[in-house]
Design brief:
Elements: H1 3-18, H2 29-46, E1 49-50, H3 60-66, E2 77-78, E3 81-82, H4 88-105, E4 109-111, H5 117-128, E5 134-137, H6 153-156, E6 160-163, E7 166-167, E8 172-173, H7 175-185, E9 189-192, H8 203-212, E10 216-220, H9 225-229, H10 236-239, E11 243-247, E12 258-262, H11 265-279, H12 287-322, E13 326-327, E14 339-343, H13 350-359, E15 362-363, E16 365-367, E17 382-386, H14 388-392, H15 397-412, H16 417-428
Parallel strand pairs: 1-15, 5-6, 5-9, 9-10, 10-11
Antiparallel strand pairs: 2-3, 4-12, 7-8, 11-12, 13-14, 14-17, 16-17
Length: 457
């Protein structure tokens, strides 16, 4: 969308709200700059191939209910037990979210109040251990998120971080050695699931040992929640997990936020008590209707969406390998998730590769690989990509093969990113509508201020 067209739409909406006669007196230079920056950001992202594994786009329907009056309101406590008035409809929506997520993930208890996956982890960890307790976690090489470690949430809570051993051949947890660590340490809880995550962690094998020593198994499904919803990733509860924490905006394509799932009533009640007032006061209420819409989309379209994600990631990995890249996990089929990880040491390193790709309107992130030292974080060996957002916009296997060709042009052939940018923008222009959602005409739906929903900036 051209920048001026987007700005015109924004100013039209602003003028309807403020009144055209007052625009001149309330339009300071800084407001114009805010509008410019917002338009420029949206223009960049809507003309780029977004391959960040932790991002996605909501459907227009989810965005419509997200932009509601609930964004201005405050709710402390639980439905029907609030410390504020005026929340009768918020209570119903929150209960609906809990019911829909319960149906979708076939689980008894849902806690939707965490405002991020990290907050979901914090509340869960604190409910399961006092400061001074011990947690055994998946190793950083196997994709553990910073919140699982002494450097992040676990350390902030004063819980000791003990890593399971890593097996380079399987790019995963070393099950036999991990079992010995768990039996020796007897931790309060175990954490699996990850951030750089191409193969499932061995939940079943680890859970058997964890339960034998009285440990609770926490599975962080932030990256793969949408694949679990679509039945293309193993159900962690079936494999032995006691608690699942997650973000609601990665492969699960909802608003930014978090969620906690469990079938254990005692654990659920304990976690619920840590949410408020320890980690969350108001829980950003406008997330709730958007999360409910996304859950319904996943109930109705989640399997076809997740299936296409898995197909696309495998096709993308194979295409990158055929173009001459070193893609991790070749002997294991490259990937089983939405992610594809590339070793770019021979292509300038992770920092340079990510920068060159961004100059060509291809957005990825540099990432440590399992054999990188921690000090290489600023210029690691790898880049991490995810196919979920572009899949939701309609891309399929052949389209990702085309993306792999663009990678080759930039990182192997050394072509000018400005030249490749034109090709990337052209490819992106073919995918402008969100798929796997309900077809509803929103043109006549009023906003909270009585203004019909116009096209976004």
């Amino acid at each position: 969308m051209p920048c001026l067209e987007g700005k015109d739409r924004f100013i039209l909406r602003l003028s309807l709200y403020l009144g055209a006669s007052s625009m001149a007196s309330v339009f300071p230079q800084e407001l114009g700059r805010v509008i410019d920056l917002t338009v420029e950001h949206n223009t960049l992202r809507r003309s780029s191939l977004n391959l960040i594994p932790s991002e996605n786009v909501m459907s227009p329907l989810a965005e419509a209910v997200y932009m509601c009056d609930m964004m201005h309101r405050y709710a402390e406590g639980r439905p029907r037990k609030r410390l504020y008035q005026g929340l009768r409809y918020v209570d119903e929506v929150e209960e609906l979210v809990m019911d829909l997520m319960s149906r979708l993930f076939r689980v008894k208890y849902v806690e939707p109040r965490p405002i991020s996956g990290t907050i979901a982890n914090a509340a869960t960890f604190r409910a399961l251990s006092q400061p001074g307790g011990k947690a055994v976690v998946a190793p950083v090489q196997a994709g553990a998120h910073v919140s699982h470690t002494r450097f992040g949430t676990l350390g902030a809570l004063g819980i000791e971080h003990i890593e399971m051993p890593f097996d380079m051949e399987s790019i995963n947890i070393d099950v036999d050695r991990a079992r010995k660590v768990i039996e020796e340490v007897r931790p309060s809880f175990i954490v699996m699931g990850g951030s750089m995550y191409i193969f499932p962690h061995p939940i079943k094998e680890i859970a058997e040992t964890a339960h034998s020593v009285g440990s609770v198994v926490v599975y962080d499904a932030a990256h793969v929640l949408g694949l679990i919803a679509g039945r293309r990733w193993r159900d962690p509860f079936e494999a032995g997990a006691d608690v699942v924490t997650a973000s609601t905006h990665k492969t699960f394509p909802g608003p930014q936020g978090g969620v906690i799932l469990t079938n254990n009533e005692s654990i659920y009640k304990s976690i619920a008590r840590t949410i408020f007032p320890w980690f969350v006061s108001n829980h950003h209420l406008h997330r709730l209707p958007a999360t409910a819409v996304t859950a319904l989309e996943m109930i109705h379209f989640g399997e076809s969406y997740a299936d296409q994600i898995v197909r696309n990631s495998r096709a993308f990995a194979e295409a990158l390998a055929s173009e001459g890249f070193k893609v991790l996990g070749e002997h294991l089929g490259y990937t089983r998730s939405h992610q594809v990880v590339i070793d770019v040491r021979n292509n300038g390193g992770g920092a340079k590769a990510a920068q060159l790709l961004e100059e060509a309107n291809i957005i990825v992130n540099k990432n440590l690989l399992p054999y990188d030292p921690p000090g290489a974080v600023r210029d690691p060996s790898g880049i991490r990509t995810g196919v979920q957002e572009m899949t939701r916009l309609g891309m399929k296997e052949d389209d990702f093969r085309e993306v792999a060709t663009l990678f080759r042009m930039i990182l192997i052939e050394g072509r000018d990113p400005a030249e490749v940018r034109k090709k990337a923008i052209d490819l992106r222009s073919r995918f402008t509508s969100v798929r796997y959602t309900f077809e509803i005409d929103l043109s006549s739906v009023p906003s909270p201020y009585g203004i019909p929903f116009l096209s976004k900036i």
